[in-house]
Design a protein that fits this description.
By secondary structure, the chain is mainly α. Helices cover 83% and strands 0% of the residues. It has helices at 15-40, 45-91, 93-106, 111-122, 125-137, 147-171, 174-200, 204-231. Helix 1 (15-40) runs antiparallel to helix 7 and helix 2 packs antiparallel against helix 6 (147-171). The radius of gyration is 25 Å and the shape is elongated. The protein starts with 14 loop residues before the first helix and ends with a helix.
């Protein structure tokens, strides 16, 4: 028998949760690449710190703005479709009832039962709208997501991720700061990857190593570019 706690499903459609997960990952990868890219050119520690702070602030605002605009556009699109569907239910209830009957029948419900269910659903305007919206374009009217929640989560998460490779440069410099930045970022990448793996059920180790590889490639390429440009 499956334990009761495993039978509960989490809300994976939340815009805020999605933005937070990607925000940490993007902040970490973006800033470790930026910081090591500058460090590769061997400038003063103050230049690397400035680059890291600028990357943190600019990236956080950019990602938050992007999430807000994206979710606002998506929400407005869904609201428009819901308004069209609401008007159709008001103007042509018979047609909408037949559509619902056909939908139920395609799902394997017997014709007579499908007709009875459709009439019961259509007797409640809000239930009718919810059912038609879910069946026709996969939207639940009360669960469209919050642009502000997504933007806020994205901003805070990006700052958290971006601060990790920056922290050693706030208290140190040179080779030691580079080493600490790499080490902390590697640990953070593994933790973020493992967390995603646990949340999705895809396997913590695989997800952790994938996240580490992505961060390592980004940091390695930009460090190499920084060394080449600095040497020139």
């Amino acid at each position: 028998m499956v334990p009761s706690e495993e039978m509960h499903h989490r809300n994976v459609a939340s815009g805020g949760a999605r933005a937070a997960v990607f925000g940490v990952s993007d902040g970490l990868v973006t800033n470790v690449a930026l910081i090591l890219g500058f460090a590769g050119a061997h400038p003063s520690a103050s230049v690397v710190r400035l680059a890291g702070v600028a990357g943190l602030v600019a990236g956080a605002f950019s990602m938050a703005a992007g999430e807000y605009l994206s979710m606002t556009a998506q929400r407005e699109l869904f609201e428009r479709e819901l308004a069209i569907e609401r008007q159709a239910l008001k103007d042509s209830p018979e047609v909408e009832t037949e559509e619902l009957i056909e939908t139920f029948q395609r799902r394997g419900i017997a014709p007579e039962l499908a007709r009875r269910l459709a009439r019961d659903v259509m007797s409640d305007p809000e239930l009718a709208l919810e059912t038609h919206a879910r069946e026709e374009f996969g939207v639940v009217p009360g669960s469209l997501g919050s642009p502000w929640a997504a933007a806020s989560s994205s901003f805070v998460a990006f700052v958290v991720g971006a601060f990790i490779p920056l922290a050693p440069w706030l208290v140190g410099s040179g080779t030691a700061a580079v080493a600490w930045s790499i080490g902390l970022s590697a640990i953070a990448a593994l933790v973020v990857g493992a967390t995603l793996g646990a949340a999705t059920g895809r396997g913590r180790t695989r997800s952790a190593l994938r996240q580490l590889a992505i961060a390592a490639v980004a940091a390695g390429v930009t460090y190499g570019v920084g060394r080449a440009v600095g040497a020139g």
